[in-house]
Amino acid sequence: MKYGEFFRKGIHGSAIIIPLGVWFLDPIVWRPLLYVGAALMLVIDLIRLGDPRIKEYVRLMIGPALRRHEDKELTGASYMAIACLLVAELFPLDVAVAAMGYLIVGDGVAGLIGKTWGRHKFAFGKSWEGTASCFLANLVVGLLIFRRPEPALLGAFLGTVVELLPMPLDDNLAIPLLAGGILWAAIAI
Predict the structure, then answer these.
(1) What are phi and psi of 127, to 5 degrees?
(2) Chain centroid to CA 143: how far?
């Protein structure tokens, strides 16, 4: 795995503080932090996209961690911050934290394992190894949060399917919003 991808996954993994904060802190503490964090990420990205000097500075600081398309679009970090804020506000606490975990833990593990050891590829480039590791990581997240196998298995499956499938929507938005939304609807039935 290239240094840039490893660096990117390190940044991605450090976001685990978000679901932990939502889980353990009072909403009066985490809510303003999420709003400010999401707004700050979005403003930084918009300034970066509009000012070539800032874009060059960001490229020097974290360039290896950026994907090619992020040179002209929002970064995954902005999408992640927005998604975490949305799921925290829209879903019940357990579903919101699980959905964030599917993104931060499941997607991160899938990328690390898939890019490092993935040998058996799907038609669209992702690997069986990455997908299996995503499911196992999502299952651990679900078991820690729900403490029951049914929602843990369903959530792990949903998070893995959304991570696996090629979608036009950035996966940092798609994973928590789609997997969390479907899981919430299924649990509510």
Answers:
(1) -110, 160
(2) 18
Report the b/e string of 156-176 with b at 16+ CB within 10 A: bbbbbbbbbeeeeebbbbbbb
Q: Are 5 and 115 in contact (CB under 8 A)?
A: yes
87 burial via Cβ count (<10 Å: 0-12, 13-18, 19+)? buried
- The DSSP H or E segment spanning 12 is helix 3-14
| Rounded Cα gap, residues 160 and 70, in angstroms | 24
- Summarize pLDDT for 125-174 with one digit per residue, the tens: 889 999 999 999 999 999 999 999 999 999 999 999 999 998 888 999 99
pLDDT at 12 exceeding the cut of 90: no
